[in-house]
Write a structure and sequence with these properties.
The protein has 316 residues and is α/β, with parallel strands linked by helices. It is built from 10 helices and 8 strands.
Length: 316
């Protein structure tokens, strides 16, 4: 359900002034500097859903899941890596061991930008062993992938350096992202000016939740949604339970989006967002029914556009 260009243009006009200040702050731009901000592109939700279809097919062909140490995970990583390699990224596979099985992180760097100021966007690519993990977390993984591909299509050259990541073994306790952060030198950790995390952004009975960890990043997402006329709430269900946590613990500013998991949507939230009161945000959370049928297209579309919006705004 793609938002029209005119709708996005109106939203962008509403938030332009506030987000320019935010982008200058996080990028280290001088206050009052004459900066002409590049506009983030619309992310075609059809493209994001095409990635989800591929991840579903991979799971179906590999025992119904894409879990750590299973063939479906490595096939998922190979799919994402091939797309990034073709788009001109420098990709790196980081290997680790957990529960006696080999795991992998995929890191993709976009050439250019200030290497001392790195904006990262990431998501976990693994599923639980009981299902294909299309909302959790094919949704975040596919939106981050399509945003990275949009960077390439646009030939975007931001002030800051862009890095994207897909983490392994999140479902076993944030293993992949923690391994990555722990293996950074203190100097390289200090170069990451922001990490954006996207874990479950297409829940079928969605809410619109924004991480409140870093004020500048939080404001970027809130301003974007205010421009769309969509109310947000502070994310608390997954606080500390996804891949932003190791970055936050290391002193990196973090933020992100979430559409809800096993918690129940209230009547007040239905008034804000629609959907069904008294039902979980995602009834298929960590279950075999977390398939391509377990996605709300409107939420996926809005959040995919929000991913790109934040990446553009915070890297200029």
């Amino acid at each position: 359900m793609k938002l029209s260009v005119s709708w996005r243009a109106s939203a962008a006009a509403v938030v332009a002034a506030a987000t320019l200040l935010t982008s200058q702050s996080i990028a280290g731009a001088a206050p009052g500097a004459d900066v002409e901000a590049a506009a983030a592109p619309d992310i075609p939700v059809a493209n994001v859903k095409a990635h989800l279809t591929q991840l579903q097919s991979i799971a179906t062909a590999n025992g119904g899941n894409r879990a750590h140490g299973r063939p479906g995970y490595k096939a998922s990583l190979d799919y994402v890596k091939a797309k990034l390699d073709a788009a001109g990224y420098t990709t790196t596979i980081q290997q680790f061991t957990s529960s006696g099985r080999t795991g992998y992180n995929l890191i993709a760097d976009w050439p250019g930008g200030d290497a001392n100021q790195v904006v990262m966007a990431g998501s976990h690519l693994d599923s639980v062993s009981s299902g294909p993990g299309i909302n959790d977390n094919g949704s975040g993984s596919s939106a981050v992938l399509e945003t990275a591909l949009a960077v390439s299509r646009a030939g975007y050259q931001p002030t800051k350096h862009l890095r994207f990541a897909w983490w392994g073994a999140e479902e076993l306790g944030l293993v992949g992202s923690r391994y990555y952060v722990n293996n950074l030198s203190s100097a390289n950790r200090a170069k990451i000016s922001g990490y954006l995390n996207f874990d479950m952004i297409g829940s079928p009975n969605p809410g619109y939740f924004v991480y409140d960890d870093d004020p500048a990043i939080e404001k970027t997402f809130k301003d974007y949604y205010a421009g769309l006329g969509v109310a947000t709430e502070i994310e608390s269900e997954g606080d500390g339970r996804s891949d932003h946590a190791p970055f936050k613990s290391a002193g990196v500013p973090v933020g992100g989006l979430f559409t809800g998991a096993s918690r129940t949507k209230t009547a007040a939230q239905v008034t804000k967002w629609g959907g069904t009161a008294g039902q979980s945000f995602d009834r298929c959370y960590h279950s075999s029914c977390d398939t391509t049928s377990n996605i709300n297209d409107t939420a996926l579309n809005r959040n995919s556009d929000a991913v790109a919006y934040a990446v553009w705004e915070l890297s200029q």
